[in-house]
Amino acid sequence: MIMMACNDQECPVDCFWEDWLDWSLCSKSCGEGRRTRLRLINVSANHGGAACAGDPTQEVACDQVTPCPEDCRFDEWGDWSECNATCGKGTRTATRVLLEAENGGNVECPEGDLDMEGTCESDEPCPEVKAGAESLRACHLVSILAIWLTTILAHTASEKLW
């Protein structure tokens, strides 16, 4: 009997995963954390066998979210108010509030302003004030009348005292 070599190539070996390991602890003690688990390769692919399908890790959100402590703090600044000027330069304000401590946070509040003021400029230009000859004459006349009236009143008052 004559023997001939046959099937002298190694058989393909497909990859094979181990069972999943246990889930990790939550990545955070408060707030939104994640848990992970992994699996290891039990048998690696060899001789043209199929690679392991799927990811070696899984990740999920933690089942229970515990609120984190928050210290007493300022909230964000609110929007700026409208400019108080109807023309030219004016002021505007922004406000914020103080938020109380939550979930065991520090109850001592920071110091700071609840309002801030800034400069602004109206879209409307202010009208020009012209000081021409007519307005100067009128101003001069009013000044003369004021002096004359003050003099007459003072004179009249002094006459009544005598």
Q: Show unreliable segments.
A: none
Named CATH architecture of the domain at 12-65: Single Sheet
Instruction: Work out the helix count.
Output: 1
* CATH C-level of the domain at 12-65: Mainly Beta
The strand order across the widest sheet is 1-3
Structure class: alpha+beta
- Look up the CATH topology of the domain at 12-65: TSP-1 type 1 repeat
Distance from N terminus to C terminus (CA atoms, Å) equals 166 Å
Q: Determine Rg (CA atoms, Å).
A: 44 Å
- Share of helical residues: 10-25%
Name the CATH superfamily assignment of the domain at 12-65: Thrombospondin type-1 (TSP1) repeat
Q: Biggest sheet, open or closed, and with what strands and sense?
A: 2 strands, antiparallel
* Chain-averaged pLDDT: 83
Please trace the helix and strand order, writing H or E for each element. EEEEEEEEH
Shape summary:
elongated
Q: What fraction of residues sit in β-strands?
A: 15-25%
Number of strands: 8
